[in-house]
């Protein structure tokens, strides 16, 4: 069903990347092709190769590439000379987005959040969230978690666990404590209790926090999914200790876990929520910070930015919310498909004694080492499947298929993954036997 990419004949000169592009590039190293087109679940390279996309821009393309309804909305808007950039001026596109977000997302969930348009990327939304929490509480410390990932600007980077990423800062990353996430010490240790105990102890050395910043499923940090009980405890701890609960829903939100927000129906409401990645629905940069109205204590322009509110993204986000979220049908389908994914990954994992991770359509397999995971994803790529790794040692092969993928293609992609894991294990066995 999936055509392996054509063997490249004469590859055009690609030396421009070596010559001019910074060596900081990363994904392009694991997938050394030049892509020209994409539609739905497929990406095409310029050599006639076609790839099934199980990365989806790290969950930025939950509705697939160039969804026809979103694309048409944007084409119509541009053709009519709609505002492309307007700082934070009121525009038709902004009003339509806010109305739709209120009607389709907030009201049905009985959520009363103010909507702050931050700079366009996820890290901007995180910066705004922690800045606001510090301003409102008058406290400095943010509690973040082991394996958390929150972005690359200094404030968000300080909240990120990964040493290699932190090492790029060049200055001390201060005012953040990294506490053990759910399950960090294994199933026997309740890390929420440990946190509560230390916050209650005036001599623990842990300062009173402005905020507790958490992902419900750690996207980059290895697809660790916190239990609803643990998250409820964290929400309660935040409340009792006068800290604001920030859920970073940049990767897990917008439907990835089977509901629009990843914390729905868990019995707590975050004080602040960040959204980005799939919010525009079409891969356009667009981020939001949501917070309880009482927390809206900014002075006008206090947190500013040239690209706050990307009008083209308003248009595609409005179309995506209207199309996918006006009824429960889409979320029901994502949950059903997430269960299929879970079952299939569990079977693949069991064959090799591996563990699965994650929730909804955000799942992966711990294959034991980053080296093995890299070999598996490289082999998948050669067979026409785009798939990446995650985790402290890049040891988790993660499946982030578009949420709109049909069951047959999901299954076909998983067939490739299953085969490549088997091949990698056979290779390891052969090496060990030598
Ligand atoms: C991707 C991500 C970010 C950072 O978003 P950028 O758009 O890369 O700045 C922050 N938090 C989480 C959970 C993410 O997955």
UniProtKB/TrEMBL annotation:
Gene Ontology biological process terms from the UniProt entry: ectoine biosynthetic process
Pathway: Amine and polyamine biosynthesis; ectoine biosynthesis; L-ectoine from L-aspartate 4-semialdehyde: step 1/3
EC number(s) given by UniProt: 2.6.1.76
GO molecular function: diaminobutyrate-2-oxoglutarate transaminase activity; diaminobutyrate-pyruvate transaminase activity; pyridoxal phosphate binding
Keywords noted in UniProt: Aminotransferase, Pyridoxal phosphate, Transferase
Highest taxon in the source lineage: Bacteria
Coiled coil: none
Name recorded for this polypeptide: Diaminobutyrate--2-oxoglutarate transaminase
